[in-house]
Amino acid sequence: MKSNKFYIIVFSILIVLLIAGGGLFIFYKKYFPLSKLKANLSNEEVIDENGNNNVDSDTDISSKKTLNPQPEIIKAIYATSWSVSRESYINYMINIARTTEINAVVIDIKDYSGYVAYNTELPEVEKYGAEQIRISNVDSLIERLHQEGIYVIARISVFQDPVLARARPDLAVHSKFKLSSLGLGFFSSASLWLDNLELAWIDPAAKEAWDYNIAVSKDAASRGFDELNFDYVRFPSDGNLNDMVFPLWDEATPKHLVIKDFFAQLRKELPNVKLSIDLFGLTCSSYGDLGVGQVIEDAYEYFDYVCPMVYPSHYALGFLGYSNPAEHPYEVVRYSMESALKKRAIYNESQEKSSSVPPSKTSEDEEEEKREVQLRPWIQDFDLGADYNAGMVRAEIQAVYDALEDNFKGFMLWNSRNIYTTDALEPE
């Protein structure tokens, strides 16, 4: 009898332990997913229960750490959001970074289409139907690139924005002809002005559009992007420019002051974020705003990096006396960057002369003193006007070195297909 009682007691204890263990398993399964437990145990990629590389949506992104310090010299390639949605392309980028001098990548998070490429959960983005999820897990992507020692830049197209224009025609550029022919006494999506690519634009004076883009920018910064790069910060440059109607720009304020005010608002709202701006290559050497509101000196005041797009194929025939500037990459790029550097020197000198010592310095004053704008151009790695082989691309890179010398802070390669001439690059 004693023996039977003993087995009954042992069996009962085992049953209790099994029940308790099952309860604990369910509790931890619900509140501490396997992916989070693994994330806490190592610095490796987060693997979920299905073996996918993911970070839970409720992970505290503010606690993410960049595993590599910011490189002093940034050499980047550009990738669309569609490209980085593919594992094979991510591996391609990583391989370039491992085997060449490239140490950074510029990724579209809001491109010419107006769509935001990942789930921001921002109310305004959802309200305007502006999300098209191409990057399924942007946090995991950034973390993976950081683990490879890659500096990650988010690219944001601002005023070329068909999605916002359709959702908020009151903020968009409109067509005089369409308004007249439709007999409209109000702005609607039917009267939107379109450029040569049939894309709609936002009135650069539309401050609600500023706030919208800044909200997207803040979200990107919170994800762990090392830098935010802004493009299409200008008035339209092609299409029937005489057919445009601006709901908010008064047409009296100079265009460049409208753009400069946006620059100032970006810096005010993102005071501690690395910011860069893409400008037409001609801003390096031309005076005036090129009819689009871009003046390179305006950008010097607000950005960490000014990135003129010095693609030789984009210069007019006859530039520097060349019948085809695209065939002279070294000369065109060197002249452009030397001109931009001279303008920066003149700008810095004028700032020193006009500045006075404040009675007391704030932390913002000190931060402003620490930041000195650097020149880091976009250069051409695509065939247009000439066959851009390794020698042509390398000539552009050498021109940036020779023009900037001690001020050299890198370059960025542009190819819309995202395939790069690695033979033009120095080995790692």
Description:
The chain has helices at 2-31, 34-41, 87-99, 123-127, 138-147, 162-167, 176-182, 207-223, 255-269, 296-300, 329-354, 363-370, 390-404, and strands at 74-79, 104-110, 151-157, 174-175, 227-231, 244-245, 275-280, 305-309, 374-375, 378-380, 410-414. The chain is α/β, with parallel strands linked by helices and 428 residues long. It has one domain: Glycosidases (TIM Barrel), CATH 3.20.20.80. The strands form 2 sheets. Strands 9-8-7-5-3-2-1-11-10 form a 9-stranded parallel β-sheet. It has a two-stranded antiparallel ribbon with strand order 4-6. Helix 3 (87-99) links the parallel strand 1 (74-79) and strand 2 (104-110). The longest helix is centred in the first third of the chain and has 30 residues, at 2-31. The termini are far apart.
Main sheet: strands, sense, barrel: 9 strands, parallel
How many individual helices?
13
Q: Outline the low-pLDDT stretches.
A: 16-67
Radius of gyration over all CA atoms, rounded: 26 Å
Provide the β-strand percentage band: 5-15%
Count of all domains: 1
Q: Can you give keywords for this protein?
A:
single chain; 428 residues; alpha/beta; TIM Barrel; 9-stranded parallel beta sheet; two-stranded antiparallel ribbon; 39% helix; globular
Care to give the gist of this entry?
The protein is of the alpha/beta class.
Structural topology:
Blueprint: H1 2-31, H2 34-41, E1 74-79, H3 87-99, E2 104-110, H4 123-127, H5 138-147, E3 151-157, H6 162-167, E4 174-175, H7 176-182, H8 207-223, E5 227-231, E6 244-245, H9 255-269, E7 275-280, H10 296-300, E8 305-309, H11 329-354, H12 363-370, E9 374-375, E10 378-380, H13 390-404, E11 410-414
Parallel strand pairs: 1-2, 1-11, 2-3, 3-5, 5-7, 7-8, 8-9, 10-11
Antiparallel strand pairs: 4-6
Helix pairs in contact: 8-9, 11-13
